[in-house]
Amino acid sequence: MKRVVIIGGGFAGINLAKNLAANDGFSIIVVDRNNYNFFPPLLYQVSTAFLEASSICYPYRKLFGPSPKIAFRIGELVKISPGENKILLSTGELDYDILVLATGTQTNYFGIENVKINAMPMKTFEDALNLRNHLLQNLEKAAITGDPGERNRLLTVVVAGAGPTGIEISGMLAEINRKVITREYPEVANGQFEAKIYLVDGVSTVLATMGEASQKYTLKSLIRMGIEVKLGVQVKEYLDKKVILSDGEVIETETLVWAAGVSASAFIGIPIEWYGKGKRLIVDEFNKIKGAANIYAIGDTCILTSDKLYPNGHPQMAQPAIQQGANLAKNLILLANNGVPKPFKYADKGSMAIIGKYKAVVEMAKPRMNMNGFFAWFIWLFVHLRSLINVRNKLKTFANWVGTLTTRDQSLRFIIRPGRKL
Ligand SMILES: Cc1cc2nc3c(=O)[nH]c(=O)nc-3n(C[C@H](O)[C@H](O)[C@H](O)COP(=O)(O)OP(=O)(O)OC[C@H]3O[C@@H](n4cnc5c(N)ncnc54)[C@H](O)[C@@H]3O)c2cc1C
User: 391-407 and 374-387 are packed helices; what angle lies between their axes, rounded to 10 degrees?
Assistant: First the structure.
C-alpha cells in the first residue's frame, strides 16, 4: 500500500483523505497541529458569542472513527526532506510515498510588527475565542470605569479589512452595540458613551472580489448600521491603544481586529523556487508541486495558474480547496491503476457575504444571478449550514440560530479564561 501523508485537515485535506479512503490501495495519515477540524466561515459568530464554539469544530479521531484506512497524527510540520521522502514534525518523524501539503494560510500583518503584537487576528479557532473573551472583558471594564475617555476606548473597535470576514465581524459588533449594551449594560447605556465601529480598507471598495451591485448594497447597509467605513486608507500602526491610519487620523481603541490579509506558510527544506506569490506553492494542473517528484499541494496553500480562467490562481476559498482535494484523490487512484490523471478544473459556485440580520449579498455562478437582502441572507444561512462537517454540527448550529432568532437574543456571553477575569 502506498503511504499518503496529508499535512492539514482543513477543507482540502479532509476531502482528499475521505475520497482516497474509498480505495484500498492507500494507507493515509492526516497530520494537523490541532486535534480538531473547524469551519472558518462561522468563526466570526463564535468570536461575537452568537454561536456555541463546539458547533463548528469536531475532533479528527472521532471524525475518522475506528477506520483502519485513515490515521491521525497531531503535530506541526517543521521540515521536509524531499530527497529522503521524510518529514519532521514537532512530534517526531514520518516517512511518505506521497506527501500532500494542505496547510492553508496564516494571518499576514504585512510586516507591521506592532500590529502583529497588539491586534486581534481572525484566522484560527483560538483567535475567535480570544476575541470573544477580549470583547466581553472590555464590556465589563466599560461598565466599571468612571473615565469617559477610557469607556470610549473600550467600546470602540477598529476592523481592518473590508472583505467578507471584516464585514461580518463589523455587522455583528453593530448588533451587539444596538441590542446587548442597551439591554444588559445599564451602567454603560445610561451614561455618555460612543461605541464606534470603524471598518478600514486600503482599497476603494468593500468586498473587492464581488460585483458592483453587491458592493454598493453592502456599503449602504453598513453605513445604515452605524459603522464608519473608511476606504482607501490603511492601518499604519497600532501602538499605545492608538490606531494610526495612512491619512493621519488617530483612533483610540482597545481593539483592532485584523482581517486584512493572509499568506501561505514557508517550510524548511522547500526550495525557494517552489514558492509563488503570497508564498503559495506553485503547482501544475494535477496539483503536483513544480519541481517535486511526489509532493502535491492543494487548497489555499497552492497556486495553480494553468487554468485559463484563473491566470492569477484560484480564489482562496473553501470551494477550490474542496474540489482540489477530491480531484487529487481521483488522480492518485488513477495513477495507482496506470490511468491518465485529469487536470483540475474549477467549478465556480459563486460567492456570498452576510452583513447582518436579514442582510446578505449572494452572487450565484450558475445560473448567473445576484441577490441581496432577506432572500440572500436565507440562502447564506442554508449554504453554510449544509457545509458544516457532520450532522451533529449542523443540528447544533441550527438550534443556536433558531434560538437566537426566536428569542432575539443569545446567552453565550461567557468570559472563559484561566486566572482573573479582569
Ligand atoms: C474567518 C474566515 C472566514 C472565511 N469565510 C469563508 C467563506 O464564507 N466562504 C469561503 O469559501 N471561504 C471562507 N474562508 C476561506 C476558507 O476558510 C479557506 O479558503 C479554506 O479553509 C481553505 O482550505 P484549506 O484546506 O486550504 O486550508 P484550511 O481550511 O485553513 O486548513 C489548513 C489546515 O492545516 C493545518 N495546518 C496549518 N499549518 C500546519 C502545520 N505547519 N502543521 C500541521 N498542520 C498545519 C491547520 O490547522 C488547518 O487545519 C474564510 C476564512 C476565514 C479565516
Answer: 150
